[in-house]
Design goal:
The protein has 320 residues and is of the alpha/beta class. It is built from twelve helices and eight strands. The structure holds adenosine-5'-diphosphate and magnesium ion.
Length: 320
Amino acid sequence: MKIAFVGKGGSGKTTLSSLFIRHLAAAGRPVLAMDADINQHLAVALGMDEREAAAIPTLGDHLPEIKDYLRGDNPRIPSGAVMVKTTPPGRGSRRLPVTGPDPLLDRLSVRMLGARLLATGAFTEEDLGVACYHSKVGAVELLLNHLLDGPGEYVVVDMTAGADAFASGLFTRFDRTFLVVEPTRKAVAVYRQYRDYAATYDIPLSVIGNKITGSEDVAYLRDQIGDDLLVCLGHSPAVRAMEQGRPLSIDDLEASTRTALDTIHHTVDATPRDWDRLTRQMVDFHLKNARAWANEATGTDLAAQVDPDFVLGPDLLASR
Ligand SMILES: Nc1ncnc2c1ncn2[C@@H]1O[C@H](COP(=O)(O)OP(=O)(O)O)[C@@H](O)[C@H]1O
Ligand SMILES: [Mg+2]
């Protein structure tokens, strides 16, 4: 299952991503975590010290290698140079496991609490808002499209706050998206915008209320968000203590936070995989990007990369 945590900067995306990763890892589930936020804080939120976190290999620095590896011997993709962020897998492309051995992921990831962690690297000025095929979140989109995850396996992405996710098909790559909102008008406005995108593209969306200080906050979000509001979290002293430098273990979390994590987990597990939507949107966004900029950027007709006989589905999973 592929899961994204999205929301305004400061809403708690990294906090919720890290708590959910800790929750899954503590339950012994296979987890691949990806830090795709502009501010790279996920490794530290998972307990790594700043110096070690700064030394994690970054996807942004390894894009040519990633592209070359993923295209495998797919005859429709003769070189990494014509592989853009939306290039879909086809026959011959490499598929990635969640936690199992893989030469590329073994080189680029680190292990934390039993989970595998990948990081895009911090965004620079020229990464922001560009639909260019070098963009760092492009690596995340490519990896997600080549990742073959089954039920009971989890890919958790701490997403970029900005509109970057909407510049390609990235926001459609998830089985379920969790939008973290604070009980404020601004956050509710972000929710409305996301809800409209999600509805247009049939994307399962749940809202997590965060930094709730009382029943008025809950009532406000309930009124503004209705049934999309899944759970509410208050201020967590355990999270604050970790921010102050105390190591956090899952057992330190308050009962209410743990209950919220259980609810999030059940919600993910109850989400059916929609292979048809994921495949269709992967192709649609590729063709859209090809027309908008990528054909011109690569000097080729990238529609030819779509393999009409390649089906992303349960058979592929069974053949792993
Ligand atoms: N439920 C919570 N309890 C305590 N502190 C929180 C909680 N949620 C977020 N925070 C704190 O708020 C700040 C911003 O959260 P963060 O997860 O980094 O936001 P984002 O990733 O969306 O920018 C951090 O200092 C974090 O520790
Ligand atoms: Mg963050």
